[in-house]
Design goal:
The protein has 339 residues and is mainly α. 60% of the residues lie in helices and 0% in strands. It has helices spanning 6-17, 43-53, 55-59, 78-95, 100-109, 118-128, 135-150, 157-164, 175-198, 209-215, 219-234, 244-262, 271-287, 294-301, 307-316, 320-331.
Length: 339
């Protein structure tokens, strides 16, 4: 129908159905570069679509979550973690009548800046890069500068705020961002337990009863408890909160995972090798930046970005497999590579 604007109808529906504390699409603070609105999609849905179709999102399938090169098809990768965060966050946002499009956009974009080899890669780049390295800051750099050959995705301020503040110390400015911040913890605590049990690092019975008696004795029970607790304690409020017993149990379980899994030599035995590989790749490309892909050379020579930061961008964007391939190509003589 001529003159029909679906976007405006959807924006009107948000005001009819969402909580007064939700982030309304037609009240967004907007983008850094002004664009003509879409006639079908509200701004946050458009951001969600841009993230889903970007190259950095696709590369998440080849990046470690916790276990390096696990033997099995059912261990999480960075992309399956991202999808679980999104699912948890959408469930909470829908129950609280918040903006699901904004919630999903933040969730899908929150780890775009993560390195190969999980937090091992992040630690290595943090040591060698000028100014350090933090994946939530890199995620913002990805969406503002690195995607689309240096143009960025031009996302709304609300989505970028949620991505930047998804870490434990973050303070998102929207309830949707706060939902993603908690959903990230809920996802990784539960799926990392599942993977650790699959990898025979721990058993369900090893988890302290002081946490499982409150949260549940299986991943399904714990997810159910945590999500319900957030919904029931946040409904109708201008905040996203948990009850103290459940919050304390979740934090205790998180600490248990750090002590028993995230620093376990069986689970993390290969991380020193991965860190050394990342550091050597960084040092090599820093002195041979002319070997970087053309778009990165352009950032150094034309946009005058520091070479140290651009090399960091390139390595942070690698998948695990690509990092190994480039390391072998650079560091190992071809005649010896056959063994």
């Amino acid at each position: 129908m001529e003159g029909l604007n679906i976007r405006r109808l959807l924006e009107e529906r948000e005001h009819e159905t969402l909580s007064i504390y939700a982030s309304f699409s037609d009240q967004s603070l907007g983008r850094d570069i002004k664009e003509e609105p879409c006639d079908i999609r509200p701004v946050y849905q458009r951001d969600r679509d841009r993230i889903l179709h970007c190259k950095a999102f696709r590369r998440l399938k080849g990046k470690t979550q916790v276990f390096l090169a696990p033997e099995g098809d059912h261990y999480r990768t960075r992309i399956t973690h991202t999808l679980e965060v999104s699912q948890n966050a959408r469930t909470i946002a829908k129950a609280l009548q918040l903006n699901e499009d904004l919630t999903e956009a933040i969730a899908l974009g929150h780890d775009l800046g993560h390195t190969p080899f999980g937090h091992a890669g992040e630690r290595a780049l943090n040591r060698v890069c000028d100014g350090g390295f933090q994946h939530h800051i890199q995620s913002i750099r990805v969406v503002e500068m690195l995607e689309k050959h240096g143009e960025g995705l031009n996302l709304t301020k609300e989505v970028r705020d949620g991505i930047k503040n998804h870490q434990t110390a973050g303070h998102p400015s929207t309830l949707e961002g706060k939902v993603v911040r908690l959903s990230d913890k809920i996802a990784y605590i539960n799926h990392d337990i599942d993977d650790a049990i699959r990898g025979q690092i721990i058993t369900e019975d090893d988890i302290p009863a002081e946490y499982t008696d409150i949260l549940g004795h299986s991943p399904r029970e714990r997810l159910n408890t945590l999500i319900h607790d957030i919904v029931m304690n946040s409904f109708g409020m201008n905040d996203i909160v948990m009850s103290k017993p459940v919050e304390n149990a979740m934090l205790g379980l998180r600490q248990y995972m750090f002590e028993s899994v995230y620093t376990n030599p069986v689970a993390k035995g290969q991380e020193a090798k991965a860190e050394a590989m990342i550091e050597q790749l960084y040092e090599y490309y820093l002195t041979h930046y002319e070997l970087l892909p053309e778009e990165y050379i352009y950032m150094i020579d034309v946009k005058h970005e520091p070479a140290s930061r651009v090399v960091c961008d390139y390595i942070a964007g690698m998948t695990d497999r690509y990092a190994v391939v480039k390391f072998k190509e650079i560091m190992i003589p071809t005649a010896w590579d056959v063994y």
